[in-house]
Amino acid sequence: MRRLLSNLSAIAVLALPAAAQIEVGALVPELPAAVWLTEPPAKSLAELRGSVVALWLFDTDDHTQQSTLAVVRRAHSLYARDGLVILGLTNDKSKDVEKWAEGLDIPCPLGASCDAAKAYGSDASWAFLFLLDHEGRVLWNGFPEDSAWLVPLPSALKLAERARDGWDPGERPAALAAAVEHCRFRRFGQAWKAAEKVARGLEAGSPDHAAAEAFLADMDAEATRRESVAETYAAAGCYFQAYGFVERQAEMFKASQPGDRFKEKLKTWRLDRQVKKMRDLDERRLEAVELVYAGGNPGKGIQALKALLDEAGDLPIAATIAEDLDRALNR
Q1: Spatial contact of 32 and 120, defined as CB atoms under 8 Å apart
Q2: Contacts (Cβ under 8 Å, ≥6 apart) of 277
């Protein structure tokens, strides 16, 4: 596709943005079938519920692509590890997209050969972006080179994090009403104790005893899922983020078996000098990235990242810092 808009017609386009009929607060249609150049975290928006998603509709001939890519890289560097998912979709053929993307350091999966324009209500050849909250509703829409879509991201990611911290046990027998109520307020340790009390007070094999045991097993599985999230942070050497996450879980699951596991994890990390060093490096890495993209001093941020990379040596966090540095240099 070719952008054949004069300056005058471009101004008219700004007055009537693409896909304007999909309003803020609305759900967008599902992802159209696409040829993915790199595997996305999910191929449907339903699977991405719980995550904040930037749905970027692009055209390889869009003259705003350099400024758009700068904003996309900035968003990824600042917020991807906090849960932001960016997906690029285009009507262009996969072979054309693959050639276009060479050397551009695009930090997100790209889906080509799909009818994205039609799916999202636009028949024009300019870039457009929908920012979706963790419930899949449009939080912002507009042109992606406008960095205004980054403004609501911190609060949207915080809300998504709080929602992920919740756990809905669903419908349970009346005997477990107290445990379910504690879950509503993220008092998982108290919910655990309430379910244990039910199990102890009933004869083994009775329906409510079995329900209490199932409740505890489900809660333990949920805690295990959260432990895997912490390990994902840790595998990248991002122990400042990992610590904050595990401390929060330890508080919510306090005085329960899962809570004890979270406390033990924190204790192990506190006694590990290498982890302590990576926690410090990770905190300073985040500060440097903030300088590059939002602190008004990219040169200082880049120098800080270079120094951190040297300091990291062969620690696992070195790869994470190197990735941030590469993106900062190509911002």
Answers
A1: no
A2: 315
**Residue 8 banded pLDDT, cuts 50, 70, 90:** very low
Give me the pLDDT at residue 77, please: 85
Q: 252, 187 in Cβ contact below 8 A?
A: yes
Q: Note whether 22 and 130 are within 8 A (CB).
A: yes
* Pair type for strands 52-57 and 128-132: antiparallel
Reduced to 3 states (helix: H, G, I; strand: E, B; else coil), residue 242 is: helix
- What string of DSSP letters covers 251-301? HHTTTSHHHHHHHHHHHHHHT-HHHHHHHHHHHHHHHHHHHHHTSS-HHHH
Tokens 């870039």 identify what position? 127
- pLDDT confidence tier of residue 12, bands split at 50, 70 and 90: very low
CA distance 192 to 22: 43
pTM comes to: 0.75
- pLDDT tens digits for 76-92? 988 988 899 999 999 99
Query: Two tokens at 221?
Result: 């599985």
In sequence order, which ranges of the chain are alpha helices (DSSP H)?
7-15, 65-79, 94-101, 116-119, 153-165, 177-184, 188-200, 207-235, 239-252, 257-270, 273-293, 298-312, 317-329
Task: List all residues 6 or more positions away from 173 whose beta carbon is below 8 Å from its beta carbon.
Answer: 207, 208, 211
Q: How far is CA 99 from CA 95, 96, 217, 249, 330, in A?
A: 6, 5, 50, 45, 18
Which DSSP string corresponds to 307-328? HHHHHHTTSTHHHHHHHHHHHH
* Residue that has been written with the tokens 């285009």 in this structure: 90
Q: How many CB atoms lie within 10 A of CB 235?
A: 11
Strand 84-89 vs strand 52-57: parallel, antiparallel, or unpaired?
Answer: parallel
Question: Which residue bears the tokens 């506190």?
Answer: 270
Parallel/antiparallel/unpaired status of strands 52-57 and 110-112: unpaired
Report the alpha-carbon angle 302-306-309, nearest 5: 135
Q: What is the pLDDT of residues 161-171, one digit of tens each?
A: 888 889 999 99
